[in-house]
Each structure stands twice: as C-alpha cells, then as structure tokens.
Amino acid sequence: MSRQVNCEYLKKEAPGLDFQLYPGDVGKRIFDNISKEAFSIWQKKQTMLINENKLNMMEANDRKYLEEKMVAFLFEGIEPTIEGYVPPTK
C-alpha cells in the first residue's frame, strides 16, 4: 500500500512520493507534505520554466531560482509565470 500524506498543495489526503526526490530540508518537506499527483503537476511546470528561461541546472543561481518557484507553487499556491502559458481554469 502506498503511503498517504496530507497534501498541502491539493489540500487533501493523497498517495505520497515513494522516496525523497529532492535533497535537503526542502526535499524532506516535500516528501512529508506533497503528494505524487501534486509533484507531477509541478514537474510539468518545472520543465516549462527550464525551457523558457533556458535554465542550466549546473548553475547554482538557476537551481535556486527553480527551488524558490517550486516552494512557492507547492506550499503557497503561487503559480509560476511562464510566457505564453495560460493555466487551465478549474
């Protein structure tokens, strides 16, 4: 059986990640409080942000930028701004 978390993004109980996908304290917070579904939604947005901003994951500043956007999205409900992308209405 999969582990359940009270997902801060979806605001409901949902299956959690199988293992910590992101390092450090932020990764632990995601593992403990974010569901697979919410993290999958983030990963799609992350790909768009990387592509649009031509981020280089070898660059510390680019990784920091992406982490800030991820935390804002998953825990504060702040949608990242992606040029030309209009989020689907709920």
From TrEMBL:
The keyword Ribosomal protein does not apply. Gene3D superfamilies: Fe(II) trafficking protein YggX. It comes from the Bacteria. Keywords: Iron. Pfam families: Iron_traffic. Belongs to the Fe(2+)-trafficking protein family. Could be a mediator in iron transactions between iron acquisition and iron-requiring processes, such as synthesis and/or repair of Fe-S clusters in biosynthetic enzymes. NCBIfam families: PRK05408.1 (NF003817). This is Probable Fe(2+)-trafficking protein. It comes from Glaciecola petra.
